[in-house]
Amino acid sequence: MEVRAVSKYVRMSPRKLRRVAELIKGEPVDRALSILEFTHKAASKAIYKTLKSAASNAIAAEGSARIKVENLYVKQVMIDGGPVWKRIRPVGMGRAYVIRKRTAHIDVTVAEKITKIKAVAEKK
What we know:
This protein has 124 residues and is an alpha+beta fold. Helix content is 36%, strand content 32%. It starts with a strand and ends with a helix.
């Protein structure tokens, strides 16, 4: 079972978010949350919120009795570019420089680890 959460229009450049997202790919959710909690990057807060939302969505979909956070892992983290806000900065001699304020979309997918016992039960 795969569950995802999406954060759109995050006011941060996708390049900065991707650096932090690489740290948690394939990790168990509880370990990924602790990695993000102790990472000293502003991007870790936005990814932390999205990952926590994905884990909550998984528990809500299946019920807290059937699925535990310990059994979830980060299957995929996608960081896509959002719309760019263009601003003008006046500079000398009547010119203007364009300032690009980038946004991003964060898409986190979590899945349940299949244990050997569950795999045998599903085959029957």
